[in-house]
Amino acid sequence: MNYEFASAENIGDRKEQQDRVAIATHPTEEDVLLAVLADGMGGHKGGAIASQSVVDAAMGVFASFKPGTGVPRDWLHGMVMAAHERVARAGRGHNRDPRSTCAIALVSRERIDWVHCGDSRLYQFRAGEFAGRTEDHSMVEILVKQGEISEDDALVHPDRSKLFTSLGGPEAPQMAFGSIEQVEPGDAVLLASDGLWAYFRNRELAALVGYRGPTEACDRLVALARRRAAGNGDNLSVIMVRRTGSVAKRRLLGALFNAAGTKPVAPSSLEDCRRFLLAYLRGAGGAGVPDLVRRVEGCATPEAMREVIGASGTIFAAMTSRAKADAFASRALDLLD
């Protein structure tokens, strides 16, 4: 088939896993598949029931999907509305108020279409680089769009998890759609619950998943998120889907091969750190940056990379503020551990 995919889940430090993921190929078309991620909302009774209801409803609609007929967006809209109604029914008469978010990707040979509701996200990557993500249905996301806070600030904002729409409530859910209309080899989408994406910046995700296979990429993200949660982590879940095939032109970032284009690069913490640093350094202005790029590219051991990072504080600070430079260096070092 034209796609490779994988998923991973972890209960985190909660008593119950309220995330659900599912991937299914179409019964008659192996290059058509559906990926569903749902996050039952912890502030409402029945979170696990809600997320499972989303998966069941979406897969039920997918079972009747006829590839090549209709408009993908209409099928996705039908999946979300079926999920919304099923979650609402699950709460009637049971003294519970189940709610869920969702991100759903409908994948076909030439295109990928998606829909999301709430703060379950879908990230898009091309040539191993971050190409975009869905926008959360939250007040904090609105503050980011208005320029009142940065994306980094949003990750630690106290109201980050407050949403203005979800599945299962008394009002029809708001949903947002997107697509890749001409999928290229190497194009990938990553579906993630907030228990996972809260610990990563956009370009960091690209650096981590761009040169790994989907299974290893999902496992690496879960492991890093769990470590960064430091004993207070939410449920987390992730799905990765990537188009297979040869790529005529590859850049260092996100390539499955090295700069020479011939030898595979083995995934490692050192390579993660290198790609993370280069993602931010390449294209940045300022004295010393080109030399720093060459030094980062040439590091052969974690020890050498730590020395480069430790000696580059002035250059990092010239690119941004001292506080952001320190955070940048700290994140790079964290990837080496």
Which blocks of ≥5 consecutive residues have pLDDT under 50? 247-262
Helix content: 25-40%
**So how many helices?**
12
Largest sheet: 5 strands, antiparallel
Give a structural overview.
The chain has a 5-stranded antiparallel sheet. Strands 2-3-4-5-8 form a 5-stranded antiparallel sheet, covered by helices on one side. A hairpin with a 7-residue loop joins strand 2 and strand 3 (33-40). The two termini are 36 Å apart. With 337 residues, it is an alpha+beta fold. It has 12 helices and 10 strands. The chain has 2 domains: 3-243, PPM-type phosphatase domain (Phosphatase 2c, domain 1, 4-Layer Sandwich); 269-336, no CATH class.
Task: Give a quick set of tags describing it.
Phosphatase 2c, domain 1; 12 helices; alpha+beta; 337 residues; 2 domains; 5-stranded antiparallel β-sheet
Task: Summarize the SSE layout with pairings.
Blueprint: E1 3-10, E2 19-25, E3 33-40, H1 47-63, H2 72-91, E4 100-107, E5 112-117, E6 121-126, E7 129-133, H3 139-145, H4 151-155, E8 176-180, E9 188-192, H5 194-197, H6 202-209, H7 214-229, E10 236-243, H8 269-281, H9 289-298, H10 302-310, H11 313-319, H12 322-336
Question: What's this entry about, in short?
Answer:
By secondary structure, the protein is α+β, with helices and mostly antiparallel strands.
